[in-house]
Amino acid sequence: MNYAVNSKEIRTFAALTLSDMKNKPFGEAPLLRLVICLMAGIVVGDSVGTVSWLWPAFVVMVVGTLLLWRYAVGQSAGIAVCFVVLGWLLVQRQETKLRVSWQEKEVCYEAVVISKPVEKPKTMAVDILLTGSQQKLKCYLYKDDRSRSLKIGDGLRIQSRIRPNSEWRKGSFDYRRYLEVHGFTGRTFVSSWKWQKVELSLKSLSRLDRTRLYFLTLRSRLLERLATDQTTPNPPARLCRLLPTGRKNSGGEAYAVVAAMTLGDKSALTHDLRDIYAITGASHILALSGLHLSIIFMLLTLLSARPHFTFLPFYFFTFICLWSFVFLVGMPVSVIRSATMLTVYALLSLGHRDKMSVNTLAFTALLVLIVSPLSLFDIGFQMSYLSVFAILLIVPLSERLFPVGYLMTHRVIRWFWGMVAVSCAAQIGVAPLVAYYFGRLPVFFLLTNFIVIPAAILILWLSPVVFLFPSLANILLYIVSGLNTLLTTIAAIPGASIDGLHPTKLQATMTYVVIVACYLLVFRLSRRRRDYR
Predict the structure, then answer these.
(1) pLDDT digits (tens, 9 = 90+) for 392-402
(2) What tens digit of pLDDT does each residue of 308-323 get?
(3) Are 168 and 184 in contact (CB under 8 A)?
(4) Residue 463 bridge partners (DSSP)
(5) How far apart are CA 409 and CA 8, in angstroms?
(6) Residue 478's CB: how many other CB atoms inside 10 A?
(7) pLDDT over 90 (residue 36)
(8) pLDDT tens digits, 253-312
(9) Per residue in 475-489, pLDDT tens?
(10) Distance of CA 99 to CAs 122, 164, 169, 184, 464, Å?
(11) Would you say residue 21 has pLDDT above 60?
(12) pTM, full prediction
């Protein structure tokens, strides 16, 4: 499975990553060191746990670092230690918030539904937010017509016992960690006669929670509008002949892909469809990331009468649209990262500064980890940042293979080479993680990207029109049906993916060490070659 080939992101930024990487392997990126120290502190804090004397020690370290202002090396070391301790403190504070002592008996509480019900073998799983304590829970309701009819924003009065998160593991997947990363503090099982729908006042919720709930409700309505025509289209007749038996009617699958790509709702994706996208290396278009934000960003730029960022109203319009989309799709970490980078890009454009670099990426990581330190253990966070980091490092090296100015004067070659370089760089960045978490590496990811990225652009640009005029949904779903057919054909090729990979954490880490060593070697050889010339 490959979540993070953000090809369009770099093409949208034009050539914004080259200026600060000509003389140093990681460019002028002081924030990168701070992020590494912060991550180290988060890992240490998660492993060691709560320490009562940490806050006083942190204050002493900060004061000591300030007193070392005459000694640059000593002060730099002090800053690094302070950020390690800061990461420890941040993860300690968040884990303290997640450790809630629930009563051993059944209690009555009121909650609001914040996710679509997901059907399980015996229950309907739904996420709820308690209106009193604002705790987020996994709720499992007895499966019946009432629980199936629940919608986002419905109020519930429940009589049940709340239990801590379960310690369930499967391979490298830790379910308890997954729940903690996403803010869940407990779970509850509710019988059909122990809950009822009620009208609730949401004034007790924070403004952020109310805003998120409003956008989630809006997303649910948009999905309903899109779903009205989901059963109509089938693949075109010529493409339909390529489909294996049992996959002739792909209207529901086309709707599932559109819902995942445009609104971040993957509940309709079947296991077979996910597997096809994973084998072909196209899973990154199903998981919202910088690719999707960059396509939207490019669309906003084209719609603007003045596409340059010196036009201040355009910046505010773009800012509002991007962050509204972030709320609309449920605020996944990869989308927050991309929206933050694009916001910084627009701000720096106003001052005619270098816009996109490793330092900018490190800045967004600092913001995300300070707000939610446990995001470091989220698969989406890891793949999103590693893929973009690899792109920012490797793509400039790949462009040195051509004479100066050659790519600027040959647009077709520049586009083709850009796709190849970005796809390969992102794949290198996430390959060890993909093998560790999913035990699979796609072989035809490069071929797939030449298909899915133009298709993603077309789908995302047509989606607003379809949401405004649902009767045009057939056009969009026909396109997605054709895309699914092509990917099914690629997935059927023998050797389309390398399966059965199960590296350990140490092996995955050592693979990254080898990748970094190879990058440094190539960088130094490239610089010597340039200096020699």
Answers:
(1) 888 888 877 77
(2) 544 567 777 778 888 8
(3) no
(4) none
(5) 20
(6) 18
(7) yes
(8) 888 888 888 888 888 888 889 999 999 988 888 888 877 888 887 777 776 655 454 456
(9) 888 889 889 999 999
(10) 28, 8, 19, 10, 42
(11) no
(12) 0.83
- Say if strands 440-442 and 497-499 run parallel, antiparallel, or are unpaired: antiparallel
C-alpha pair distances (Å), 91 with each of 44, 47, 80, 87, 337: 9, 10, 17, 6, 19
For 385-487, strand residue ranges (E) read 440-442
What is the phi/psi pair of residue 498, to 5°?
Answer: -100, 110
Name the residue among 301, 255, 327 with its Cα closest to residue 474: 255
CA distances 340 to 110, 337, 346, Å, are 35, 5, 10
User: Hey, what are 337's tokens?
Assistant: 């990262």
- So what's the pLDDT on residue 138? 92
Long-range contacts of residues 347-351, Cβ cutoff 8 Å, at least 24 apart: 347/315, 349/308, 349/309, 349/310, 349/315, 350/309, 350/310, 350/312, 350/315
Contact assessment for residue 484 and residue 273, using Cβ atoms and an 8 Å cutoff = yes
Round to whole Å and give the CA distance between 213 and 222: 14
CA–CA dist 185, 135 (Å, integer): 7
| CA gap 128, 145 in Å, rounded | 19
> Going by C-beta distance under 8 Å and a sequence separation of 6 or more, which residues neighbour residue 262?
459, 460, 463
Q: Please state the separation of Cα 497 from the chain's center in Å.
A: 23
Strand pairing report for 136-142 and 195-198: unpaired
How far is Cα 144 from Cα 153, in angstroms, rounded to an integer?
19
Percentage of residues in the chain having pLDDT higher than 90: 21
Identity of the amino acid at 17: T
Work out the angle between the directed axes of helices 379-399 and 358-371 (0-180°, nearest 10). 170
Confidence at 31, pLDDT banded by 50, 70, 90: confident
* 47 vs 69: CA distance, rounded Å: 33
What amino acid is encoded at 419 in this protein? Answer: M
Q: What average pLDDT does the segment 231-250 reach?
A: 43
What confidence tens digit (pLDDT) does each residue in 46-75 have?
Answer: 888 778 888 888 999 999 999 888 888 888
Question: Is the predicted pLDDT of residue 456 greater than 80, yes or no?
Answer: yes
Q: How far is CA 312 from CA 53, 304, 356, in A?
A: 48, 12, 19
CB-CB contact of 462 with 301 (8 Å): no
Q: Does residue 276 contact residue 493 with C-beta atoms inside 8 Å?
A: no
pLDDT at 242 over 70: no
**What is the gyration radius of the CA atoms in the chain, in angstroms?**
24
- Which tokens is 444 given? 């035809």
Bridge partners, residue 162, by sequence? 188
User: Reduced to 3 states, what is the DSSP secondary structure of residue 159?
Assistant: strand
Angle at 378 between CA 444 and CA 366, to 5 degrees: 110
Residue range 211-221: mean pLDDT, rounded: 89
Gap between the Cα atoms of 405 and 15, Å rounded = 12
Residues across the chain: 533
Quote the DSSP letter at residue 36: H
Q: How far apart are CA 513 and CA 195, in angstroms?
A: 53
Strands 497-499 and 136-142: unpaired
